[in-house]
């Protein structure tokens, strides 16, 4: 299905009341088919943190802002309490911030998160990826032997703050 010629991503959410799974849609407050509970709006749990991020960016504290975004990404992609539409937004925001201000550590941590999510979703059978290649390229360009060492030995969890 195509809307505005962009592929529609389908993500699964879990009812906060009864735990049944449903398809999450961006900008839609889902009502549970099973128990009728209205689900929280995507990103509504992180409004204060996002204001903090804006303030930090205004004050040119880019690295600190990226740290907060990474923590939000971790929470938004938690396999139990996932908020995938919000995770997608955080991902785009954080990636742009990292590229613009050359925040190598946070950029690598974000890519490592993506690798770990893909591994989890595929039941652990996922080892080589575009994300890994990008992470290696970014670390190489930045001359970060320490990061490369972890990436090449798959010591990925060490790279997550
Ligand atoms: Zn429910």
The coarse overall form would be flat
Give Rg in angstroms.
17 Å
Can you list the strand order of the major beta sheet? 1-2
The SSE string, one letter per element, is EEEEHHHHHH
The helix content is 40-55%
Termini distance? 37 Å
Main sheet specs: 2 strands, antiparallel
Count up the helices. 6
Q: How many strand units?
A: 4
Bound molecules: zinc ion
Strand content: 5-15%
Write down the overall mean pLDDT: 87
Structural class: mainly alpha
Task: Indicate the low-confidence ranges by residue numbers.
Answer: 1-7
In total, the number of domains comes to 1
Summarize the structure.
By secondary structure, the protein is mainly α. The protein is 52% helix and 7% strand.
3D structure, described in words:
With 161 residues, the chain is mostly helical. It has one domain (43-159). Helix content is 52%, strand content 7%. The protein is built from six helices and four strands; from the N terminus they run E-E-E-E-H-H-H-H-H-H. It has helices at residues 47-58, 62-76, 84-101, 104-121, 130-141, 145-152; strands at residues 2-3, 6-7, 11-14, 21-24. The strands form two sheets. Strands 1-2 form a two-stranded antiparallel sheet. The protein has a two-stranded antiparallel sheet with strand order 3-4. Strand 1 (2-3) and strand 2 (6-7) form a beta hairpin. Helix 1 runs antiparallel to helix 2 and helix 3 runs antiparallel to helix 4 (104-121). The protein starts with a strand and ends in a 9-residue tail after the last helix. Residues 1-7 have low confidence and may be disordered. The structure holds zinc ion. Zinc ion (ZN) is lined by residues 15, 17-18, 20, 32, 34-35, 37.
């Amino acid at each position: 299905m195509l809307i505005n010629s962009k592929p529609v991503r389908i993500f699964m959410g879990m009812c906060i009341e009864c735990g049944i799974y449903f398809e999450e849609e961006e900008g839609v407050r889902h009502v549970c088919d099973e128990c009728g509970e209205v689900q929280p709006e995507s990103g509504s749990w992180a409004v204060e943190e996002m204001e903090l991020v804006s303030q930090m960016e205004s004050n040119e504290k880019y690295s600190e802002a990226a740290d907060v975004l990474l923590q939000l990404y971790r929470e938004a992609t938690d396999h139990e309490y996932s908020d995938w539409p919000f995770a997608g937004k955080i991902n785009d925001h954080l990636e742009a911030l990292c590229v613009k201000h050359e925040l190598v550590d946070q950029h690598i941590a974000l890519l490592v998160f993506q690798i770990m999510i893909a591994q989890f979703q595929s039941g652990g059978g996922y080892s080589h990826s575009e994300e890994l290649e990008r992470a290696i390229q970014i670390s190489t360009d930045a001359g970060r032997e320490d990061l490369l060492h972890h990436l090449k030995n798959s010591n990925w969890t060490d790279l997550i703050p």
